[in-house]
Design brief:
By secondary structure, this protein is α/β, with parallel strands linked by helices. The protein folds into 3 domains: 2-134 and 451-519, Rossmann fold (3-Layer(aba) Sandwich); 151-362, no CATH class; 520-553, no CATH class. The chain is built from 18 helices and 15 strands. The strands form 3 sheets. The chain has a 6-stranded antiparallel beta sheet with strand order 2-1-4-5-6-7, with helices on one face. It has a 6-stranded mixed beta sheet with strand order 8-12-13-3-14-15. The protein has a 3-stranded antiparallel beta sheet with strand order 9-10-11. Helix 15 links the parallel strand 12 (453-457) and strand 13. The radius of gyration is 46 Å and the shape is elongated. The two termini are 23 Å apart.
Length: 553
Amino acid sequence: MLKSLFISNYALISNLRIDFDGGFSVITGETGAGKSIIVGALSLIQGQRADTRVVKEGTQKSVVEAGFEIENYNLKSFFKENELDYNPVCLVRREITINGKSRAFINDTPVSLNALRDLSNRLLDIHSQHENLLLSTEDYQLQVVDAIARNKAELSDYQHAYEAWNKSLNELQKLKREADRQTADLDYLQFQLSQLDDANLTEGELAELEAELDTLSHVEEIKHELQQAEMLLSSEEYNVVNAVRETGNVVLKIKNYLPEASEWAERLTSLHIELKDIALEISSTQERIDFNPERLQFVDDRLGTLFVLQKKFKVTSDSELIALREEYRNQLNRIDNFDEELKNAEEKVRMAFETLKTKASALTASRNRAKPVIEKYLIEQLLLLGMADVQFVVNLKNNETYTEKGNDAVEFMFSANKNRSVQAVAEIASGGEISRLMLAIKSLLIDKSDLPTIIFDEIDTGVSGEIAGRMGEIMRKMSHGTQVITITHLPQIASKGSAHYLVYKDNSGITTETFIKSLTEQERVHEIAQMVSGKTVTDAALMNARELLKNSN
């Protein structure tokens, strides 16, 4: 529950610190005193968007810090998952600077706004005045039904099925688009492939042809140089081969006198064998190489064909041409198999949809089980709140359209008068009726949840007198299991609280300041009397206030 609240340099607040107890607390104050400022500051703890205009004029930073007692709310897993220190009293802080920077902390450790929201939503619910408008929306009504149905497992199963169905639909549509596109390109792909197939491409051919072209283009030069080499190696004039052999024989004669001569002889013998082989290869190559204009033309034409293909297909090697050829072949093969792929994809969609319908049915069943619970509870509470002829129906219908929340359309139907059929809440309920209905719904939700704290910001709009007292009694009953804090302008509700806080302005200084204080019993009597009679407190108002407080105990 909320144990403490500290606000610094926020709007009209310089420094404000207040401690809260469990049970039912009421906050009162004149219009404009700053009650909504306190709610706004608490909304920052909930991770709401920060506005630099809240930073008190003349200061650099606003700070809002709330202390929560969390020992009984099974939150240790949250702290472990977020690598935060766990303490039975948790401090949640938000800082807003004048230049727009916002920082969040949990137990003095910086955290993201998402982590802040995750924790604060488990600790605190603020019901602001504008939330009454949500009651008219289908989305909020569905949230209420799901909360009472306690169908997180069914909803999770359905959403997984919904995601799988959407994924299979997207894959089918993507496949259809690809099939249409590639089928339209069929002639083009066949033509491109035929060109590459006709070229009879082989890996590495280009490099071999370029090397052969160099040889064929320089036949005369090659033959001349080979003749020179052969002459140097084998002719009578030079005969390097024989000279090396004879040198080896000469060196071998002194091997008995010079040890290293044996090694020289062996090396010269090896050299002689190598030179002899080279001389034979040169001679053979010289005889084989001859000017071949037909082969030269063929190689030149073949290279021309390959270069044209490279330029056309915007590649730089024959390996890329071969890869492109296989890609075209694969695309054409896939076009041939598209019918089978489409059939498989359509079957996948069908199966996913069958699963979706099954999960949707389970989700609908859970919501149908919650309907009588909601209807019975709300009618009982609204009867207590003075609606003697109230009718309330949860209308749940199936849609053909499936969304991430199922295929159910929820509508709260309501009538507060005799002989008048129920209609949609948005169309028939007055402001006071909406307030009472909303309180009854919040009471139901609190009864079915383990939320530590709920704050009502003037949920009593549009009611007065005895009905206001009954609303206060409902809030007091809610506080038996949940800390309830309400901001009210009605004495009948204010008198029901176990603790009473007053928000007030002080204009005596240089600037206007907002403060909050806990009222003593005597101060409380005076405040409630003032709520009854206005600024001029009469004896009758004081007596009325005492009576209200007495009847509330």
